[in-house]
Design a protein that fits this description.
It holds the Pfam family Patatin. The chain is of the alpha/beta class. It is built from 8 helices and 10 strands. Helix 1 runs antiparallel to helix 3 and helix 1 crosses helix 7. The relative contact order is 0.21.
Length: 267
């Protein structure tokens, strides 16, 4: 491996489970492992954008917890969704005062799904906020996001861990999945069945790209948390942090990517 390898970091989507990415970021920072470029879908796009703009894991966490995300949304009188994301722009403007990918401190690519053409589109240049909104636009819940005459929904529909922007460009690719699904012996109701089926589909989407990753971090059991289970945010953050510290400690080659020689205590 090169002495100064170029590192690409890919974050999956997963709703509130994406807070695990912040725990991952905290651990990587403590070990001195710095991404040269980042990609993400859905919650991973939001976490990635905040990280690339220079916010620490703790600052991103506080922003998410203190902000009532849904108060920025209004009902959509439309067959395409039940909520509109238009007013979320106000929220994003607060954290991204310069609405352009070029203003980020670390290069970022976000994945969104062109709903009419049925294909993944990667955004890495030009206006930032609308592509991040499009990448996290859950189909059926939010109206699709219009960008240059085309309509986009959640990037996780077709690519829930976009490693492709790093493939052939970076020396090392780190993939992070926040949707690990534990074995379940008792499906209690239709809600559990639907949620489990959706997560299985998302994970198949992720695992098909796992072999492109040099390192793959997947905090265990996060799929037990609901997409909007904000009350469990601290547990999710800690799960991401602990899993990453343990993974780094057990992988000397991964740890060698860092500039810090300190051993992080995992509680």
């Amino acid at each position: 491996m090169k002495s100064n390898p170029k590192i690409g970091l890919a974050f999956s989507g997963g709703g509130i489970r994406g807070i695990a990415h912040l725990g991952v970021i905290k651990a990587l920072d403590e070990y001195g492992i710095k991404a040269d470029q980042v990609s993400g879908s859905s919650a991973g796009a939001i976490a990635g954008a905040m990280y690339c703009n220079g916010y620490t894991a703790e600052e991103i966490y506080e922003a998410i917890i203190k902000t009532n995300y849904f108060k920025f949304m209004r009902p959509a009188i439309s067959w395409t969704g039940i909520l509109k994301m238009d007013t979320v722009v106000e929220l994003f403007n607060k954290y991204f005062p310069v609405d352009d990918f070029s203003a980020l401190k670390i290069p970022l690519t976000v994945a969104a799904t062109d709903i009419k053409r049925g294909k993944v589109v990667y955004f890495s240049k030009g206006p930032l906020i609308k592509p991040v909104m499009a990448s996290s636009c859950i189909p059926g819940m939010f109206d699709p996001i219009e960008i240059d005459g085309r309509y986009y929904v959640d990037g996780g529909v077709l690519n829930n861990m976009p490693v492709e922007p790093h493939d052939g460009v970076c020396d090392v690719i780190i993939g992070v999945n926040c949707n690990h699904l534990p074995e379940e012996h008792n499906i209690k109701n239709i809600k559990n069945l639907i949620e489990r089926t959706v997560i299985m589909s998302m994970n198949y989407n992720v695992y098909s790209r796992k072999n492109k990753c040099d390192f793959f971090i997947e905090p265990q059991g996060l799929a037990k948390y609901g997409v909007f289970d904000i009350k469990k945010s601290k547990d999710i953050f800690e799960a991401g942090y602990k899993a990453t510290c343990e993974y780094i400690e057990s992988n000397p080659e991964f740890r060698s990517l860092g500039k810090s020689e300190q051993k992080v205590e995992v509680k």
